[in-house]
From TrEMBL:
<feature type="domain" description="BMC">
    <location>
        <begin position="4"/>
        <end position="97"/>
    </location>
</feature>
<keyword id="KW-1283">Bacterial microcompartment</keyword>
<dbReference type="Pfam" id="PF00936">
    <property type="entry name" value="BMC"/>
</dbReference>
<dbReference type="InterPro" id="IPR044872">
    <property type="entry name" value="CcmK/CsoS1_BMC"/>
</dbReference>
<dbReference type="InterPro" id="IPR037233">
    <property type="entry name" value="CcmK-like_sf"/>
</dbReference>
<comment type="similarity">
    <text>Belongs to the bacterial microcompartments protein family.</text>
</comment>
<dbReference type="InterPro" id="IPR000249">
    <property type="entry name" value="BMC_dom"/>
</dbReference>
<protein>
    <submittedName>
        <fullName>BMC domain-containing protein</fullName>
    </submittedName>
</protein>
<dbReference type="GO" id="GO:0031469">
    <property type="term" value="C:bacterial microcompartment"/>
</dbReference>
<dbReference type="InterPro" id="IPR050575">
    <property type="entry name" value="BMC_shell"/>
</dbReference>
């Protein structure tokens, strides 16, 4: 059985590290990657960089970690979006291995 995956996009590198710290403390998760993206509308954003944190673990651990990460990131600059995939398909697994860093 595949591990669940959690994806949370936040504004800025500092918020990403704060989110990672909170996630790891809240659930038994493994951080797979931190990806960066500078959107076309970067100048209109609170921080001109969007970071995506990818984490893996059991469904319950990822859910707890995602909630903690969201709360922590919102205390810094904010969350763009978040999503959890309970059992990624093998084709999705291939895409999850792509990293922008």
């Amino acid at each position: 059985m595949n591990e669940a995956v959690g994806l949370i996009e936040v504004f800025g590198c500092v918020a990403a590290f704060v989110a990672v710290d909170a996630a790891c403390k809240a659930g038994n998760v493994r951080i797979e990657a931190l990806d960066k993206n500078k959107p076309a509308n970067a100048d209109s954003l609170p921080v001109p960089l969007v970071m995506c944190v990818k984490m893996r673990g059991s469904i319950s651990d990822v859910r707890a970690a995602m909630d903690a990460a969201e709360e922590a990131a919102n205390s810094v600059t904010g969350v763009v979006s978040k999503h959890m995939i309970a059992a990624p398909d093998q084709n999705t697994e291939k895409m999850l291995n792509i990293s922008a860093l």
